[in-house]
Design goal:
Layout (H helix, E strand, L loop, with lengths): L1 E5 L7 H10 L1 H6 L2 E3 L23 H4 L5 H22 L3 E5 L9 H10 L3 E8 L2 H14 L17 H12 L4 E5 L2
Parallel strand pairs: 1-3, 1-4, 2-3, 4-5
Length: 183
């Protein structure tokens, strides 16, 4: 079985890709392709166990869970759900997508676990020009009500996406990574 893993990262059209996958679920299924949706908040469902948030829940997860232990149990359950869905449906291709995958604390553990259930793994990621990314992030923060004094400054802006994607490339090999320029 083949897994297509969409890594995101943030601000590279991930949300649009995920919405298209959700809307096209029936058509994908008819074509022998399974889109793993997870359990809400689904973008964290497989990511959490390998995230840097093992000691303190991020705000989005605090709305759903009272403790790291509770979130960890939920994420383990999501991994079980993925395995169950793939075992029952036996799709030719499974697609999993999250913008959070690109920023994992333990990508090696994540890839090891993913590879246990699939014969072939293809990673798809998008990179973005750092200047365009900075402008997009600042624009989003302003629209969200952030005050000017609280905006990230250019000299303090860090662009880790390409470095993080390279970590995945080292794990799965260059032939199994499709990297596209968002711009």
């Amino acid at each position: 079985m083949h897994l297509i893993l969409h890594l995101g990262p943030p601000k590279t059209g991930s949300t649009s890709i995920q919405r298209a996958l959700w809307r096209g679920g029936e058509q994908l299924q008819a074509a022998g392709c399974h889109h793993y949706r997870g359990r809400k908040p689904s973008e964290w469902s497989l990511h959490f166990l390998y995230s840097p948030h093992k000691t303190k829940l991020p705000p989005v997860l605090r709305r759903h869970f009272d403790s790291v232990a509770e979130a960890t149990a939920w994420s383990e359950g999501c991994w079980d759900l993925l395995q169950q869905e793939v075992t029952e449906k036996r799709p030719d291709v499974t697609i999993v997508s999250s913008e959070h995958f690109a920023n994992m604390a333990d990508p090696a553990g994540f890839i090891d676990r993913i590879c246990d259930g699939f014969d072939e793994v293809t990673l798809i990621a998008y990179a973005r020009d750092p200047v365009a990314l900075y402008v997009s992030e600042v624009d989003e923060l302003i629209r969200g009500g952030r005050r000017f004094r609280d905006l990230p400054q250019v000299h303090g802006f860090h662009y880790n996406a390409v470095h993080n994607i390279r970590r995945f490339e080292e794990l799965v090999g260059r032939d199994n990574l499709i990297l596209r320029n968002f711009d």
